[in-house]
Amino acid sequence: MSVNDIARVYASSLIDIGREKNILPDIEEEIRFLADLITADNEVRQFFNSPGIPKDAKKDFVEKVFKGRLSQTTIDFTKVLVDNDRQSSIFDIYQAVIVLMDDAYQRQRVTVVSSAPLDPALKDKLTAKLKDNLKKDIILNEETDKSILGGIIIKIDDLVIDGSLSKDLRNITNNMLTSKVRSEVAYED
Question: Which pTM was predicted?
Answer without folding.
Answer: 0.73
